[in-house]
Each structure stands twice: as structure tokens, then as C-alpha cells.
């Protein structure tokens, strides 16, 4: 069977902002790519829309929030990311809409990234398993908020104290999308990606998946994607160009 080839992602950029719904969303595949980029001297910032406080069955949200934020900060540190923001929106019940776009547009205006990374926000992961509602709400709000950020008449109340519109985002990249057409070689940074997922210890333990091995899990996807890029390991992204005329 012919395998569908993936295009390499461009790497001629300096700043990326990652906006995802939950702590751990980036660690299920994208973190090894982040490690590669920070290793190239690029600046990558994380923004978590929620703190994943509804993610552990045996742990009440107030306690869970603290645990998961700490795990995310450590997970980020492992792949060379020193700045992690939490928007403290409600985990599990995020709604796509203007309020969420407003929150994210503000983050984009403050960080002025070239690339914005989010998670897969298609309806499924490629099979029959449905994607989670927060992921879909977040990804849709991210692509819209990137446009909002560049328009001085949208969320104009944010433009005080020197904050300017930012229309410099070249593209939004959605990690792990089932219709991804691009990928990045993560062979050299694969281990950092594994360590970054293992940093979510309380979350992984809370899932209660018996004998689940983060390395084995990540390797399966990375090898399949790598094959399509012509390398050992890779991470896949769907590219949404944000300029006009592309
Ligand atoms: Zn998630």
C-alpha cells in the first residue's frame, strides 16, 4: 500500500505560542517537536485554557488544579519552555464563542507569536472515537482569536497600556489532526517528549490504565508519522495558513 507522504513544517520562525485546552494535551505527541524547536533557540510559550481540574476522578477540582498546574510547568521545563500561562476557564465545559475568543486574542496580542500551535479540533482522531468537546471549542476559538488579535476594532478594550493589535501570526498548526499534511522530525528529541508526558504522573495514575507505558504509546504514533516523512520519528500537524491569498 502506498503511504501518504507528509511535508516538512517550515522552521524559519522565532516565536510560537501553544494554546490548548488541558495540561497534558501537548504531551500526547507535540512535546517532542517543541523540544526540537526550543533546542534551535526558538521561544515557545504555553497557554492552558483550563487547568485540567476535572481530569482526575479521585481528586476534587480545587486540589487537582494545583497538582496539574505543577505537573504542566515541570512538563514544559523538560522541553525548554519556561513560561506557562493558565486562563482558568472551566475544565470539561468550555464553550466556543466570543468570550473564549476574547481571552485567547488577549494572549496572542501579548505574546506576538509567528506561529500558534493548538491541538486537533476535528470531530474525531481519524477513527470512530469522538474528539473531546473542550478540544473542539479551543481549536475553533484559537483560529478565530488569531484573526481577532490583528483587528484593532475587535476587543478594542484590550488595547490600553501600549498593547497593540498583532496580525503577524503566519499559521495555526493543529497537533495530531487526522488530516495533517505536515510533520516535523522528532527523532533526536523523542526522549524529551516521553519525559514530558511522564511528568503528568498524577494524571496518568488517575487514568487507571493498567500497564500503560507512555514511551510505547508515543512511539507507535511517532514511528507511523516518521515513516510518512522519511525519518525514524515525527509529529504530525495540520496547517491553517493565516495570511491572505494562500
Ligand atoms: Zn485534553
UniProtKB/TrEMBL annotation:
Keywords linked to the UniProt accession: Zinc
SUPFAM superfamilies: LmbE-like (SSF102588)
Signal peptide: none
One Pfam family linked to the record: PIG-L
Identification of the protein by name: PIG-L deacetylase family protein
Naturally occurring in which organism (per UniProt): Nocardioides caricicola
Amino acid at each position: 500500500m502506498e503511504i501518504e507522504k507528509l511535508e516538512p513544517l517550515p522552521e524559519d520562525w522565532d516565536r510560537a505560542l501553544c494554546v490548548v485546552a488541558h495540561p497534558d494535551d501537548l504531551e500526547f505527541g507535540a512535546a517532542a517537536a517543541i523540544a526540537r524547536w526550543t533546542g534551535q533557540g526558538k521561544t515557545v510559550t504555553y497557554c492552558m485554557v483550563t487547568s485540567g481540574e476535572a481530569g482526575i476522578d479521585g481528586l476534587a477540582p480545587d486540589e487537582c488544579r494545583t497538582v496539574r498546574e505543577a505537573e504542566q510547568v515541570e512538563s514544559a521545563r523538560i522541553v525548554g519552555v519556561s513560561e506557562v500561562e493558565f486562563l482558568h476557564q472551566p475544565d470539561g465545559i468550555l464553550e466556543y464563542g466570543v468570550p473564549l475568543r476574547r481571552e485567547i486574542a488577549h494572549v496572542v496580542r501579548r505574546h506576538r507569536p509567528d506561529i500558534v500551535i493548538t491541538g486537533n479540533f476535528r470531530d474525531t482522531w481519524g477513527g470512530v472515537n469522538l474528539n473531546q468537546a473542550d478540544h473542539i471549542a479551543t481549536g475553533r476559538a484559537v483560529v478565530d482569536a488569531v484573526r481577532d488579535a490583528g483587528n484593532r476594532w475587535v476587543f478594542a478594550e484590550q488595547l490600553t497600556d501600549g498593547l497593540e493589535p498583532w496580525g503577524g501570526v503566519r499559521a495555526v498548526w493543529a497537533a495530531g489532526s487526522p488530516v495533517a499534511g505536515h510533520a516535523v522530525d522528532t527523532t533526536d528529541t523523542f526522549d524529551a517528549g516521553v519525559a514530558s508526558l511522564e511528568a503528568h504522573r498524577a494524571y496518568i495514575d488517575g487514568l487507571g490504565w493498567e500497564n500503560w507505558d507512555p514511551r510505547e504509546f508515543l512511539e507507535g504514533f511517532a514511528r507511523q508519522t516518521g515513516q510518512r516523512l522519511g525519518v525514524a520519528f515525527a509529529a504530525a500537524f495540520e496547517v491553517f495558513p493565516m495570511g491572505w491569498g494562500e
